[in-house]
Amino acid sequence: MNLLGSALSNARDASAAIASALSDRLQLTGPYDEPVDQPGQLHALSLRECREVLEAGAIGRFAYVARAGVPDVVPVNYVLDGHDVLLRSGPGPKLQAAERREMVAFEVDEIDLEARTGRSVVVVGRATVLRPSQQAEVLPWAAGPRRHLVRIRPTRITGRRLS
Q: Is the distance from CB of 92 to CB of 26 less than 8 angstroms?
């Protein structure tokens, strides 16, 4: 096969793989404007719905990169300050990630185990440490000195609802 034929074959294979992936994705999530819920169907949440989940919650999971490039996810209590997520931290890798101003993720769920339904919201943004003059009322649940306040300023907020 010549070079042009090989390139065309690769392009056809790639196009078929993309079409297959899109088809699978649509089957997983369904059309976003689907008016009828079917059990097990995933739907995208609007920004308003995402805010409702965030405002109703008190516990979420903070995902960041710890030492040696290893991802870590820890449960934290939080509050919303406008669009920002605020949480307390003591010394350690969570605080270090915020001091490095890293991109992090924060996730909150509402789950009904009996009905097998729920909503999940993921906030992605840059973590920073607030100065003492910027402190807000976030009371840590965990014992120990947690004097530092970490802010996640969202660059993306997405959510899903499982019918």
A: no
Contact 95, 114 (CB under 8 A): no
Q: What are the tokens at 81?
A: 């300050």
More confident residue, 96 or 29: 96
- Give the whole-number percent of the chain exceeding pLDDT 70: 67
Helix then strand count (H, E) for the chain reads: 3, 8
Rounded to 5°, angle at Cα 75 from 110 and 57: 35
Contact 107, 74 (CB under 8 A): no
Sign of CA dihedral 105, 110, 111, 115: negative
**Rounded-to-integer distance, Cα 126 and Cα 89, Å:** 16
Has residue 159 got a pLDDT over 90?
yes
Q: Is 112 left (phi over 0), alpha (psi -120 to 50) or beta?
A: beta
Residue tagged 């059309």 (tokens): 31
pLDDT for the residue numbered 124: 96
What is 41-162's CATH number, 3.40.50.1000, 2.30.110.10, 2.60.40.1120, 3.30.230.70?
Answer: 2.30.110.10
